[in-house]
Task: structure prediction
Amino acid sequence: MAKRTTPAGKRGRSIAKSPKVAASELKTLLDFVRYAVSRFTEAKLVFAHGTTDPVAEAAFLVCETLHLHPDQFDQFAGARVTAHEGGKILDLIERRIATRKPAAYLVNKIYMRGLPFYVDERTIVPRSFIGELLDSHFGGDEEGGSLVDDPLSVVTVLDLCTGSGCLAILASRSFPNADIDAVDISKDALAVAARNVRDYGLEDRLTLHQGDLFEPLQGRRYDLIISNPPYVDALGMASLPRECRAEPKLAFAGGADGLDIVRRILNEAPRHLSVEGGLLCEIGRGREVLEAAYPQLPLLWLDTEDSEGEVFWIGATDLSSV
Result:
């Protein structure tokens, strides 16, 4: 990718020349994390893009600069950082503060379920809870209880509003016999997804489609539909933090109450599910609005380590009443 020559880019370079501290004053990975946490807290950054607090984000940026997986931080926390490495870390810390861009955009990477995915400004930074639910509720003998009798029996999966393609790729691991379709209305987002599909060697199993929800699928039916659609309501859109405003607006805006796209998915999904199929959909904090709009639907709400009542499951048979 060509280097940017915008004024913002120039500001980023000037910041790098005069960091708040010299790299030589900080010695270990932990020193740099502690410094970053102080700077991030002072700057009142927002964390909602794969990391939930300044400590996790600082560790993520330090590890990415040093080409370490986040899980390796504890192993190397006391290791010394070279002056050259330290300068790069400090530059990244200052860029995060000056631009307010999500950290994932600065390093072109995000991790979901421990797996790395490429991201840039063409797509939303993935942070769906569905990845965790694929592990906890679709394996057959999990503590949370399986929602399918046998993951090997799932042979068709659809990921709506796929963005970077990360959920479709995670689904390929949960359902090893499945052919997967992934749809997004954004050509730019699909270009990012295509890169991730290539990186994981899934070209033969995972097909990307550009279009509006089910429109490009020509009546196909699926054993499982997953979706993390746009669901931010008008009030939320008006108050998005600066970090989120760096992401594509199309990936957020869900209409006045946040459920415009979700309603369409519920109304159209019955025509695209197999008899024993089901829909797994993330809607953020719209549970009360959705339940009021569809009181006849027996929605099963699935919680994760960091969420409660933000993802629902419903079987094809129960959806027939929509």
